[in-house]
Structures are given as C-alpha cells and as structure tokens.
C-alpha cells in the first residue's frame, strides 16, 4: 500500500485485517516468531527476517523452532480470565470448567475474599493444554500455507516491500555485563537501506533508555535519507510476554508505546489494536524504554527479597511459603516465590541495561545490583543444602550419584538460557558427584554443548535410580505427581531430597526416611 504512517486508527486496523499491509518482523526469536504468526492470523502479510538461515528455512517449511502452549485456545473453548492474579507468577488466573488455575505454573487456585491462594495440585485443564503444545507450530503452518507468512535473511529486501517494520532482535550483554547493541545497530542499518517514505518502524526489543532516539533513529535516517517523525513513524513498544505464554499474552497484556512524536505513538498503538489488549500511549520512547526495565527489575528485586527471606526462614525454623502465603493475603503485598536463582533471557540482563547508563551518568545503583548478586548466589545455596543432606546421611558427595530433576530455567519450558541448573550441576561435578539429569523438554544437544559428560534422560525413574540425592530444580508440572515413596524405593539408601521449588512436603519425604532440605524450609 502507499502509506501507513498518517492513516487514521480505524484505517490502519482495516488495512491490517484486509491483508493490504505488509509487516516485516526482524528477529524471529521468542518474541518475533509468535508475533509474526499472530499478525498473519489477523490477516496481515508478514515477512519474517532473521540472520539465522536455519530459522528461516524452518519457517518457510511451516515449522516453528519455539514451543508455545495453547493457553489462548482455552479462552476460545470458554475459559474465563478472572480478575485475580497468581501469587506465584503474577499472571491472571483462568477459570475453566470447574477449575481455577494459573496458566503459567499450572497450579490450582482457590479464590476467596482474601484473594487467591494456590494449592499444591496441578489443574487438569492445564495438563490438557500442556499436552497439546502445538499451537505456534500450527499457526505458523497455517499462515505459511495461506501465503501470509514467509521468511528471509534479506532484511533490506523485505523492508522495501513492507509498510511496517518491527525490530525484535536480541539485546544481550557483553563480557563486562554491558549492553551489547550490535544486533540493534545492524538491524537498523539493514532496515534503513530499504525504508520507504510513510512507513512505520517499531522497536520492540528491551533496550537502555535513549536507544530508539540515540541509536535506531540516526541509523535509519542516515541510511534512508528520510526524517523520523516527518517522513516515517518511529516508536518504541516494549514486549511484556512471558515465554511459553506468548500466544495468550500478546492478546491479553496491556501494552505501552512511546513515539518520537505523537503521530508515531498513535500509529503503533493502532497497529497493535488488532489484538484485544489495550495500548497506552506515552510521550516518548525514553519513558517506555525505562519502564520496561523497571518491570523486569521489580521482578528480579522481588525474587531476591524472597530468596533472602527464604534463607532467613531456614535459620529461624519457619516455612517461608506459609509465611509468604500469609503475607500475600494483604492486598498490598505481592511477594513472589523463592527458588534456585533467576534464569531466562531477560531478567539476568535487564538490570545492567539500566545500571550501565546510570553508572555512566555517575550514579552507581546498589539495590538492583545486590539483587542480581543474591539471585546469582542461590545456585551455591542449593549446593550447600545438598552438602547438608550428605552430612546428615553420613555420606560423602565425592563418588556419589546426584539426580537433578529439571534443567530448564522455568517450569513447562525447555529454555536453558541462563538456567540455574548449569552452576548447580557444575558445582556438584566439581565436588566429585556423578550427575544424572532429567528434563521433559530441554534439548539434549544444546545441553551437551554446555555440560559434556552429563548423563541425560527423559524419564524420572532412570535419573533417580541408585542416586543418593535427588534435587527438584525446575517446577515442571510432572514433578507435582512425584511420590516420595516411589523414588525412595529405587534410590540408594539412605537417600535425600532437596526441593528448590516447594513441590514436595517435608513430611512426605521424611515418612519414607529420606533426608530433606527445601529452599526456605525451616520447619
Ligand atoms: N523472550 C522473552 O520472553 C521476552 C519477553 C519480553 C521482551 N523480550 C525482549 O525482546 C527482544 C528479543 O528477545 P527474544 O527472546 O525474542 O530473543 P531471541 O534471541 O530468541 O531472538 C532474537 C532473534 O534475532 C535474530 N537476529 C539477531 N541479529 C539480527 C539481525 N541483525 N537481523 C535479523 N535478525 C537478527 C537472532 O538470530 C534471533 O533469532 C530482547 O530485547 C528481549 O529482551 C524478550
């Protein structure tokens, strides 16, 4: 079409739905790929761009390299999103048939006048949907077949054919924990070379404050000879989805956008209004760039706080989860759940995307960096709990077998990026243990690159057989079905269980004579 920048809100929505708009999405990762499939499902023509030819080839063959769960499918089948959030994950709870549950951690919830409380058991509805994890694949397949989605490594060529370009490339750290903006600059250069007058560019990546106007804008202007704000629209709209829930959250989580001018922000908001979630327009990209970092830092600091509270509880004989659940009945308190550390792509890095510019401006943050230190230290704490178990059993770790249940950084996902499992497994190996690991989703090839010599299995029994100690490291739903008696029977006696995810009650483990430790379990 001739132009998108400058059209009225309803005209933009109509143009997307009628297939008159072509959108290039640059970076086909956890954000870019589901977004490509969803825009294509809404009717747009989408060209996915990535420098990785394997991803491009897969997509053109109708396949996704990312697993996304069919939570949105449940909404279509009559599930309701209720106004209470999961005390563990902070996501809105779903009511489906006779069950209320968290679509993220899968646990059943009870909602009363005091708010939502989680039960230990997993919802049937969630198990059903985890069992049919094919939605992104089928969305991609459908869109490719309908001719509405294809991929290329030629970003400039794609942008030349496009009305709108979204930038969803990765924003990692360098070896000094500083923002590495190489992918943002490279993508901007390739986009600038193909940019047409009256197009719209939206940066979706999580970036340091000032990146849209200080890096992306000058590169686009220099390469295209056009002016942001007058010749083309430019905005930053950070992404808030939680991996594994992208298909639900792209449609349901409110968005924020800040344009280099009002018209850019409003055009970006109009584009995303094809999804039901509301879009709030702010007056500059600096605000949205900063606020996205606030959101992730808030989570990281909250987790560091509960991780510290958990370690206090271990010493003062209190069960941290009981205390957290009690505290969260106060509507003003939103404590998250302690665990073995913070992994994934975003949280471990985003603190530095704010700390770095702050330090350059001569203010060294304390609390947010301390939170990183506490969370990174949890892997060592898990190892110290294992050491306590071996001391109590009167066994040596050297020469023992330790079974690690769960390697992904979070439940029901196979994502190994920055997973606390790596330092835990590495630390145990250093102490002389043989480690056998089980994970239902993690890619074993990828794991072998990180930790060669790790014995890997998909089956829990195979991992714990003849082990001296088992560690529950990820809150995969299938671990909620583990019975202490079943694993104790095949482990080497005396045996121990370290639960870092509050899945197994101490009483159940000690009833079958297992030594037990749990993060924050001081009772
Ligand atoms: N993963 C999440 O759940 C999530 C959630 C919210 C925000 N974010 C943010 O969104 C951004 C993308 O995250 P992600 O998890 O999708 O990253 P990712 O690493 O999964 O995907 C990034 C993709 O960009 C491609 N790429 C890199 N340089 C490129 C270039 N010059 N041109 C074209 N493609 C290029 C890579 O090959 C990769 O496929 C990051 O800034 C991240 O912080 C991620």
CATH superfamily of the largest domain: NAD(P)-binding Rossmann-like Domain
Largest sheet data = 8 strands, mixed
In spatial order, strands of the major sheet run 8-2-1-9-10-11-12-13
User: Residue share in helices?
Assistant: 40-55%
Query: Which stretches are poorly predicted, pLDDT < 50 over at least 5 residues?
Result: none
Work out the oligomeric state of the chains in this entry: single chain
Query: Which small-molecule ligands are present, each listed once?
Result: nicotinamide-adenine-dinucleotide
Distance between the termini: 66 Å
Rg over CA atoms, rounded to whole Å, is 24 Å
Strand content: 15-25%
CATH class of the largest domain: Alpha Beta
**Per CATH, which architecture of the largest domain?**
3-Layer(aba) Sandwich
CATH topology of the largest domain: Rossmann fold
Mean of all residue-level pLDDT scores: 93
Task: Describe the 3D structure.
This protein is α/β, with parallel strands linked by helices and 523 residues long. The chain is built from 21 helices and 19 strands. β9, α8 and β10 (200-203) form a beta-alpha-beta unit. α1 packs parallel to α11 and α8 (182-194) packs parallel to α9 (211-224). It starts with 8 loop residues before the first helix and ends in a 5-residue tail after the last strand. Nicotinamide-adenine-dinucleotide (NAD) is lined by residues 26-32, 49-52, 55, 155, 168-171, 183, 186-187, 205-206, 239, 241, 243, 345-346. Residues 26-32, 49-52, 55, 155, 168-171, 183, 186-187, 205-206, 239, 241, 243, 345-346 line the site of nicotinamide-adenine-dinucleotide.
